[in-house]
Amino acid sequence: MISQALDAVGHTAPGNHVNLVSHGEHSHPERYRYDALDEAFEDVVTYEYVQRRGCGGHVTGAHVGEPV
Questions:
Q1: Are 62 and 15 within 8 A, CB to CB?
Q2: Domain locations along the chain
């Protein structure tokens, strides 16, 4: 799941965003996704927790900026 999120962000053009969705069984994405994004993309990607969906899944918005 982490590799899929990193691939999605890696394929997102600078200035755009991608919504990363995870199943509710994986718990809140702060526990596993945020550190992976920080490590892989340093200051290029900002992210925020968007919401928990009615199905129990979680949405994180990742905005890809210009490389520093």
A1: no
A2: 2-64
